[in-house]
Amino acid sequence: MNRLFANLPTTVFEVMSSLARETGAINLGQGFPDDPGPEDVRRAAADAVLNGYNQYPSMMGIPELRTAIAAHYKHWQGLDLDANTEVMVTSGATEALAGAILGIVEPGDEVVLFEPMYDAYLPLVRLAGGVPKFVTLQPPHFRLTEEALSKAFSPKTKAVLFNNPLNPTATVFSDSDLALLAEFCRKFDAIAISDEVWEHVVFDGRRHQPVLGLEGMRDRSVKIGSAGKIFSLTGWKVGFVCAAPHIMKVLAKSHQFLTFTTPPNLQAAVAYGLAKDNGYFEGMRTNFTRSRDRFTAGLRTLGFDVIPSQGTYFLNIDISALGETDDVAFCRRLVVEHGVAAIPVSAFYAGGAVKNVVRFCFAKKDSTLDAGLERLADVVKRAA
After folding, report:
1. Domain locations in the chain?
2. Looking at domain 41-276, which CATH architecture does it have?
3. Which residues of the chain have pLDDT under 50?
4. Tens digit of each residue's pLDDT (9 = 90 or more) over 118-156
5. Edge-to-edge strand order for the sheet containing 314-318?
6. Is the sign of the CA dihedral 255, 260, 263, 265 positive or negative?
7. Which residue range or ranges hold the Aminotransferase class I/classII large domain (predicted)?
């Protein structure tokens, strides 16, 4: 067996979800909404599978969707993309990440990773033979610093794997953070693989700034998006990749030998969805903001120290004030003794550098959030 994968432990997400199923706990750990997704988009997929084309579509994605992606990013983010040479469709953002890493990174290349990070990043970098260099972000602000970047970048740096908005911390990086990152990428001639799947799930009037649109980054960035996150259809696994033609040519070859193509009916439905008017996207953010605020207020009323959520489906609490120093042990007790599943954020750090932060998913029905809060009330009482 390949030792890289054979030696990987069961992910904490599966551990906590299994415990939730076994105990009947309320699962606020897994990152998907209760909502089934917009009905008109789902109906478009159903119509396309019944009345549309169901054979192999173009490897790069159906023209209709690639055009829609370019138009969508022009409208929302001011990007000028050539749909024919700079846009590709993948079977989810994780496949897009795998293809980008395998297409760019060669054995011995250094790759800068910002932890906490999505759990697929590190195994994929190692699979490509890359040498990870970590920038460890600290709560509660999780900001970039020149000192930390200086320690991670070197003449051997080939790529940077960056996630904004950041899962699990629910951080939206500031303009100054992004400018600093772009400065280091230019200085060290590094390609930024930018995981921007949460680009539409941002709050409090924020607007997403793509790395691709930063000064000097147009020809050294790979932008990755996700229809699953945009439309709360996480099971569809339709991803977007945008990059300059000289990069895209290589990423297309990598994609060809991973999944090759993506179901055409889902592509057609996503093309329809991306053309929806501003009201859908603003309304989606408004609904998630309301859920975030409801759950935040409930946690604070109970006495939890909540780290503000700026984007994504998540918010975090700092368990230090409860006298807790081990987030994994805390989450196990939470699910077994209190009937609520959450995720320890140390699982997103390669070395478990931070052990005092716990992540909840608030993209749930009010009744689910309220039931979770009712069960969580005993946690602070016992700590006191």
Report:
1. 3-30+279-383, 41-276
2. 3-Layer(aba) Sandwich (3.40)
3. none
4. 999 999 999 999 999 999 999 999 999 999 999 999 999
5. 305-307, 314-318, 357-361, 343-344
6. positive
7. 25-376
